[in-house]
Write a structure and sequence with these properties.
The chain is built from 2 helices and no strands. By secondary structure, the protein is mainly alpha-helical. The longest helix is centred in the last third of the chain and has 15 residues. The protein is elongated, with a radius of gyration of 23 Å.
């Protein structure tokens, strides 16, 4: 027969503060288009009159990279509150 053991929670639990271990430096997000097409795409991203932007093109051309970097930049500046990542 197995006995059920009641778990008791006490107030003398060890709590570790992770704040001193967190990195204090923040990296700056640098957006630098490498060609004319990326420069046009970045201008379209920065245009506030667009509520949604679709980017199509071959793989490896920097579409996702530029969009994510621009989103991180807006988040760090406090212009947006959250980033939703979907697929």
């Amino acid at each position: 027969m197995s006995r059920k053991v009641k778990k008791r929670f006490t107030s003398d639990v060890n709590i570790i503060d992770f704040q001193p271990y967190m990195p204090q430096k923040r990296k700056q997000v640098v957006l630098s288009p490498r060609n004319k097409t990326q420069q046009t795409y970045l201008k379209k991203l920065q245009d506030e009159s667009n509520s949604i932007l679709f980017a199509i093109g071959p793989a490896g051309t920097g579409k996702t990279l530029l969009a994510v970097l621009y989103g991180i930049k807006l988040f760090q500046e406090g212009k947006i509150e959250k980033i939703v990542v979907t697929r």
